[in-house]
Hints:
The structure holds two protein chains of two kinds.
Chain A: E1 14-24, H1 27-39, E2 45-48, H2 56-60, H3 67-93, H4 106-132, E3 156-161, H5 169-178, E4 182-190
Antiparallel strand pairs in A: 1-3, 1-4, 2-3
Chain B: H1 6-17, H2 50-62, H3 69-93, H4 108-132, H5 142-162, H6 189-225, E1 231-232, H7 245-248, E2 252-253, H8 255-266, H9 274-307, H10 319-345, H11 355-386, H12 389-400, H13 404-416, H14 424-428, H15 430-453, H16 471-494, H17 500-505
Antiparallel strand pairs in B: 1-2
Helix pairs in contact in B: 3-16, 4-5, 4-9, 4-10, 4-15, 5-6, 5-10, 5-16, 6-8, 6-9, 9-10, 10-11, 10-15, 11-12, 12-13, 13-15
Amino acid sequence: MAHDHEAHHASPAAGPLWGMMAEFHDPAALTHAAEHVKQAGFVKWDVYSPFPVHGMDEAMGLKPSKVTTIMAFMCVAGFSLAWLMQWWMGAVDYPIPVAGKPLFAWEQAMPILFESSVLFSAFGAVFGMLMLNLLPRWNHPLFGKQRFLRVGDDRFFIAVEAADPKFTEASVRVMFESLGGTHIDRVEEEA
Amino acid sequence: MTTMQPDQATALGLTRLGAPGGGFDPETLDGTLVSDPALRPPFVLGNRDFHSVTNTICGWIENPTPKWWMPAFAVASGIAGLGTVMIVFLIITGVGVWGLQNPVMWSWDITNFVWWVGIGHAGTLISAILCLLKQKWRTSINRFAEAMTIFAVICAGTFPGIHIGRVWMAWMLFPIPNSNWIWPNFRSPLLWDVFAVGTYFTVSLLFWYMGMIPDLATLRDRAVARMGVKVRLGPIGLPGMGFLDNITNKIELPLNTVAAYAYGFLSMGWRFSTRHWHNYEKAYLMLAGISTPLVLSVHSVVSFDFAVSIVPGWHTTIFPPYFVAGAIFSGFAMVLTLLIPARALYPGMKDFVTARTIENMCKIITVTGSMVGFAYMMEFFIAWYGGNTFEIQAFVRRAFGPYWWAYWIMVSCNVICPQVFWFKWARTNIPFIFLISILVNVGMWFERYVILTTLSGDYLPSSWGYFSPTWVDIFTFVGSLGIFMTFFLLFCRFLPMLALSEVKNVMPQANPHWSGYNKGHDTHPKHAKSGGGH
């Protein structure tokens, strides 16, 4: 099954080779295969599954996500901005004396400090996640593959990129075959 | 993995999970109500594989519009239109069209605001707090509840916006540079409220949207696969519109292409990469972490609107926790009010929203309802124990004064009603739960009304008065229900109601160590009571 007939569905004029992909039957086979691809020393490769498979991060040897760092910075930024805003607007630029109360105090500032920190952290989480994942990106060589349309449903894939220093088409094919991968296929970039 | 049709699989699953002899077991209902804590009932019934889960959940969107949908939408959007007319009438005429007058300067508008914000709380509780507590049964209801949160907060936000008198000055609520060079007063709880509700809405929207990205990508891929197929418009489905059927039956639209582009755009090019999932899961967990204190803070800040004042009956420290408990209480009731009809109307939804899920929600309603009842008791006790004449007067007036009827509706709906869920027959009787869920929301609305009408008897008996709503008050509130339902019906029609990737993740097949029902010597399906995630 070197070349599926249904594999090239959109663009018959294929561009340069982007990588090789293989399909795996279930999360267990996928995890097992991922461990081997990592041990074989590949760096530019990825696993695709309809849901985050438990333990796959360790199997692939991924480093802890940097989302938390982004969120921490955003949290501090939100807190500082809210502090500056309340102090400058309320006590410096346009003081409103009410019942002899201080123009600024941390107690009174607390609710907005908290809300602002949470708001900025949430921006950090969502937009930081998208930034780290280089999304939005509405095109990708894998999107040209008919079988890959089921990745959000019930299919599991591993793809190794041609840009990996260890990549040769033949060796990756042999590796996928030995790991029990099916529908092993070339993935071309758009022409 | 099985290639059975979902319905066959469901039937088989129910037999397998029920009594040993097969058939329906009245004790465990669909097999999920096991009382043995050592048994972990499955989260997804019907012996489903991943593909059948995808087909069912996406099918609700991809299949032809259900027959009930168009009439329901027509009614809901009609009521929403009525609400919009009321708001326009208010703006062009003035707040005098409402029943507000001295001393009751806040009434239905703020009652509705607090009620709607409270309803929103269940969504965040389910998606954030239950996520941190690893309550996996939440996966089948979290998307649904989060959507409810968003729409409830939209309805809530409308009321402070329109009650300010000069609606065109609403931007002055926000610290926006303006030609007068004045800023809002940051020492006012009303401004804290703007930030709390604004943050809550934004964070809920982000949480909801981020959770939906992978599911939108699934819908995109399925639409791409169908891209060449045109969709026949078909009958409209509204009474009296039958004469158009000849025309609409002939119209074919490239809706699959539109869907592919729309879902494609919204899914941001998600491609289910594990390197992406890795960041995504961390971001999701962290969002849950920060949403937990957020959801507790929002209704606390809303309660500061009252508690920071010096009005008797409002100036109490019990308000923040009591408001939060009430918010979760009413929110769960609203989730049940929406979920029970949806569960009956959408084929296959009962496999995900199991009897156990509903039972769990009933238990939360009893817990939070009891907290609310305890708070009512403590308010009275502290008013008496504190010895403040005005405070005692305010509470006695609540229960035995001119608004006694509202107070006792509140007590019967909020304190007495939820206690029925101590009994198992009540927690498993779906029509009965539906009834209670509506009563709880009636009661919660009256709770806010009772708090606000405390204004009618303040320090000066000479200014005491009685508030009566006008027809504009009433129809604005009814209209907000229409706005909410309109949004909700659109959500059910066009967005994934259940979190696909999360539901798949709690299925036994998702576990890399799962050996499969049909592997090994055992040809019979493995007893699924031991299944359910990892």
